[in-house]
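Hey team,

Filing this mostly as a record. A colleague (T.K.) asked me to run one chain through the structure pipeline before their review meeting, and I want the input and output archived in the tracker in case anyone asks later how it was produced. No errors, nothing strange. Just documentation.

Input sequence:
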Amino acid sequence: MGIKRGLQIENSVYLTMQTEQNQVNRATLKRDVLSLIDQLETYIQYVSQNGYENLSHLEKQLTAVNASIRTLENQRIPIPNDLRDLKLKLTHQTSEDKELLEVKDLVAKRLTELLTKTGHSAPSKRVNTGQRKRDTRPKTENTVFREYIIKALKGFGGSARMHQVLDWMEEKLDGKLTPRDLSLRKGGEIVWRNNAQWERYKMIQDGILKSDSPHGIWELTEDDK
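Output structure:
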């Protein structure tokens, strides 16, 4: 009886410890989840309020600086250090904003998946009954973007970050893009950049670009390098 009683006490103590541990884990998990929700809310607020607007402003500044540098180079005039420093600063800021905004679609996808797993359905998009006037101005065909994406990636050795590819394309397509290409979408994105990103997705489906590259990296498959 003594041994049996001792085992009962030991099991009771073990169960009590397990219960307490589970309670601690649950409390920690709850705190972590609430913290993540706060961070996610901060991110969404940034993207919705000024993310694309800020990126568009930086891109316009960078385009103007690049144009000034090209003009000076064509005239064989030395580039001022202040102008070079400004280009580096804008390039860095633009890169950071782009990388931050790149995860927007990933966040939306993962949230939808999580809602589905918990038995909740993602809220449906509101139907806009108002007709939006279609832009019928000429635009650059996506096949052109495909050609330049391949050229850019080959120039970078087969892989590069998204912003590096798009910035290279912007320089090479200077003077070739149409006003429609250079206009802004409702979300603040430049039209041609958005179209180029969609073409990149099609290139993955066609087996030209890798589908398992690290996030934010565009990479040619071995057959296309």
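Quick notes for T.K.: The mean pLDDT is 78. The longest strand covers residues 159-161.
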